[in-house]
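1st attempt posting a full record on here, be nice pls
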Amino acid sequence: MKPSHVCSLFAVVCSSAVSAESYVIGVEKLAFAPHYSIDAQGQYQGFARELFDLFAQTSGVDLSYKVLPVEQLLPALLSGQVDFKYPDSETWAQEQKAGKALSYSQGVVEYVDGVLVAPQRHGQPIEQIKRLAMVNGWTPRGYQERIDAGQIELTYSDDLRQMIRQALKKDTDGAYFNVVVATHYLDNIRARPGALIFDAQLPHSRGSFKLSTLKHAAFMQRFDRFLDEQQSEIAALKGKYKVEANLEADRIGLEQWKLDFIERKKLKDAQSQ
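the predicted structure (as tokens):
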């Protein structure tokens, strides 16, 4: 090969490398499996990582992940240290975001936050909740009026593990957290399935995790198209990680044996048709 051809080829390769789009997603340094967590090497993993990797693969962009403590993540987005923040929502940290023209994706995954209680306490009225376990930084939506009135005392923990321990020791009347994450922890890490169950009769909130940005609104449109066009692949990922497990209105808050019964009945009905 002639030197000129080598130079031309080198220029094409370099040009392609330079033109590749690179973005940084700011993510939470938090054990929040199955949605996301950080492994022993500091690598971002879980449903969200696979979702964003799939987007990068199908769209031809280069994505990297900057792991930050939760309280540092929004300031990093607003100051331009990261291009995107995940997860986010229009309803979060509204005072900090005031005057900032943030753009949000459509919902990536649905969630429910609420109170998990011991099985024998399931179905009791809110008046029976006197002490509520919380993780620092969380807001117990639906309980603020009773908290302000001194009818509910909050007991804070540094993380989910400590909060669950408090609730299992019956130091509190319930624990407020993301239902799927808390259930995953009890079932797979603590190996205490059913020790605490979500009570859907108590106040709880529904929403969706979104991707947010301050500077890349056009990029967000591409990400939304990806969510629309890759629905089957994304549904498979959600099924793999069970990030939306049993969040349907007719299933949420049911004990596992009841869910198993429903599945067996559905299978039996299908076989009899």
